[in-house]
Design a protein that fits this description.
Elements lengths: L3 H20 L2 H12 L12 E7 L2 E8 L1
Antiparallel strand pairs: 1-2
């Protein structure tokens, strides 16, 4: 398991990546998702972000994100 400093770095990069994706032009984001996952969603598709946390508040075990 990563130490606390590595975990903070991972969380920082995760937050930066999400911010970039949220601020992207929606059609560009859909094209990115289509290319990444070999999908064929229309450019005007709505993209939503969701996160769930496994574990208890004082001991987070895993954060799962999805688009």
């Amino acid at each position: 398991m990563a130490d606390s400093r590595e975990r903070e770095t991972f969380q920082l990069f995760d937050l930066m990546f999400k911010l970039i994706l949220k601020e992207a032009i929606p059609a560009a984001l859909v094209r990115f998702i289509n290319g990444l996952f070999d999908k064929g969603c229309p450019p005007e598709s709505e993209v939503t972000f969701a996160e769930s946390v496994n574990g208890q508040a004082e001991r987070l075990e895993k954060i799962a994100s999805d688009m």
